[in-house]
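For consistency, the fold was encoded as tokens, as this record shows:
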Amino acid sequence: MKMEHINKLDKTQIKKYKLWQVCKFDRRFNGIPKEKQENITNFKHVSAKKLKEYELKESGKVRLLSTGNYVGYTKYDKNDKNINFGEVITIPTGGTANIKYHKGYFIDSGNILISSDLLNLKYLYYFLTNNNDKIQSFYRGAGVQHPSMSDIIEMEIISPPMEVQNEIVEVLDKFTELEAELEAELEARTKQYEYYRDLLLTFDDDVPMKPLSEVCVLSAGGDVPKRHFSKEKTNEYKVPIYSNGIGDNALYGWTNEARINNPCITIAARGTIGYVALRNEPFVPVVRLICAIPKECINVRYLKYATEILNFKVPTSGIPQLTVPMIGKYNIPVPPLEEQKRIVSILDKFSSLVNDIKEGLPAEIELRRKQYEYYRNKLLTFE
């Protein structure tokens, strides 16, 4: 990575400003002298409800800027008066300091918008995210917290020469771009697996559809007596106890006697509703975990794949949860066992490939994120 100007940086070239000295805001803040907000930018805002009414388009040109983690783009409409154009940093007016950067068309909801003619704005964005904890400390309130702008605008901003700012942005952009590429690869492989799974589990009318209550023995989990429970595996307590969590988070503890001894699938009835897991070893299911032991007409691995694509629906009133009678009414296709085995052999290969990627890529993404944070802190500290 090119760091010609960064490596030659002389500390005498570094200047320090208050945020209000190098930025413009899209509104005036209470209690702030007007001389600290001489120029106010003009951007339009919509409600959070209105923002989510826009149709999401993967190839849309207009970014939907929320105060939270909601991410989306919509199509450009020259007649839409809510669409802004510009280069901005966003600071939420409520919630947490979820700072974002955008350049181009956008629709905003609930953010304070910052721009600058004196700094590379992307550099300022990286500088502020590196000081996110400090900005978060300026959010106050008993309920929904709001930023104290009188504190935020007085934050000290370190400003190296523009060519150094540009190089810092170039270096940090490379890390964020790589992370985005890895996340896109993970998403693409997952979608590819889901496509082939759905394709293989779609049959003609000659394959019968049968309810889970007919092809499985269904049962609900129960309580685990504390006197037969251990958080750690021991010689006495070596039977796993599973909850309705996902992956490793489903392991609740250990006990000394299994309740389910046959290979089966489990379906989360609460929390991660509808999450399906394959269980090949004897275990104990806790409350809110439903077990489905396949009868002779069903391959257990086929059952897992066929159940994964069911869209379990919970009641709109009361506690959102699934019950054994609810699950028993859902139908799955039941081809001959030989065809089930053929489908399983194909999907097992896809699943293995995707799982390898799911294990490898997140670790790679996390490594890149740590490298990015390390370099961001190193490049923006100027010690």
Notes: The longest helix spans residues 337-381. The chain is about 35% helix and 20% strand. The radius of gyration is 27 Å. The chain has a mean pLDDT of 89.
